[in-house]
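Amino Acid Chain and Its Fold in Token Form
===========================================
What this section holds: a protein sequence and its matching fold, both as plain text.
Structure line: whole-number tokens from a learned vocabulary of local backbone shapes, matched to residues.
Purpose: to set a sequence beside its fold so the mapping can be learned.
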Amino acid sequence: MVYILEEEIVQLGAFKTGEFTLTSGRKSDYYIDLRVAITKPAFLTKVAKAMSQHLGDCEQVAGVELGAVPIAAAVSQECGIPYLMVRKERKDHGAENLIEGELTPGEKVLFVEDTVTTAGSLVKAIGAVREAGGEVETAIVIVDREEGAGENLAAIGVNLISLASIGRLKELAGT
């Protein structure tokens, strides 16, 4: 694994301690709010450059709404390839799309995400892209909380790459 960015995540206030309920429903004594960090252009640029090193032969980048969309857009800009936005739920109005952007069946898609715990939302989004004909083999996240995401993604044939170490973040934050 390649680890970068931990000091900046802590300095930007994106690593918080306290009592939190995660998307998965789990309770945690820390929270990683990367929206605080990815709204800073310099940080987002570093993330895009780091993620683009793992692009391989992918033809599309995809991100799940909300936090991963700016990451997907930044990686798209960095690499010059199109990106997809994947909704957590199908719209009930308009075109009722689950996936926004153009996906041609057979295209290789790289998923990006800010933080994963169990990767439940990511697994669902990958399933939607695969159902639409996309091929997904890799997901890159800024932070893997190391609470089952890697195993859950491996179970569906997806390799997880994390840019930051949760252990190092905890160490820097003094927890």
User: Anything to note?
Assistant: The chain has one domain: 40-164. The chain is about 35% helix and 30% strand. Residues 40-164 form a domain with the Rossmann fold fold (CATH 3.40.50.2020).
